[in-house]
Design goal:
Elements lengths: L12 E4 L5 H12 L3 E6 L9 E4 L8 H5 L4 E4 L9 H13 L4 E5 L12 H10 L2 E7 L11 H9 L1 E4 L5 E2 L4 H13 L7 E4 L5 E2 H12 L4 E4 L2 H9 L4 H15 L9 H6 L6 H10 L3
Parallel strand pairs: 1-2, 1-4, 2-3, 4-5, 5-6, 6-9, 7-11
Antiparallel strand pairs: 8-10
Length: 289
Amino acid sequence: MTAESRPATATGTTLVTGATGTTGGRTARQLIAAGRRVRAASRGAARIPGAEPVRFDWYRPDTYGDALRGTDRLYLVPPVGDPHPAAVMLPFLRQARAAGIRRAVLLSSSAVPAGGPATGEVHQALPGLFDQWAVLRPSWFMQNFTGTHAHARGIREDGLILTAAGTGKVAFVDADDIAAVAVHALTSDPAPNTDLVLTGPQALSHDDIAALLTEITGRLVTHHHLTYEQMRDHLATRIPPEFAAMLAGMDRAIAAGAEDRTTDTVQRLTGRPPHGFRETATRELTQGN
């Protein structure tokens, strides 16, 4: 066994923020299955079997101290929909460092480099705050088409996927695989101390996704191509305009080929290949999650 894959000997306790979310809940459950102690943090104190629930709100510093108590590592899910998460995340991380937290793993995005927008500022700061760290930079989630995301709602309600991504391809990744890498990053010895770009095994266009979903569900699903401006304005009816412009800009980057790539990160760190889209969508849409 290599140093990269050797599990840490200390059990430790992980504070999982966003424990009711797509990757937070999965990470908490996988840590518990591996025999690790977990504090499941959310605004409502998430109830996850085997985890200690704790109330936590990025926008309420008075919740920070209780959440950090008794933990030595963090899984960090940024506040949803905030285009400037560093404003609340960095004060929390400084308090965590002062409280003796040894390791932090941040969920970011393949589209956001260190120093970039949104989580990019937190990514850039993380190595200066913790000796043990990792930044997960997954591509777009497969669960965007099966869960509670706007794409999934549009599919269920109208059979439509709306993007400004054109025919650009994305190697969509299963949230279960993201969680598996998160567990590795939280528990491996030594810590990764790097950023990790996570993808599925194959880059697919949204037209490809629509065709696969039509085949899997037996219901026609169509990808409707929008312009950047149309996508921005559509999103701005649901989320803050600045965040809408950023997301529409990511679609435009996909159209230009920015996400047409695959990586071996999931295979290299977990010892198994990443799940494919057909496998994941079939599991979640026909067999339940």
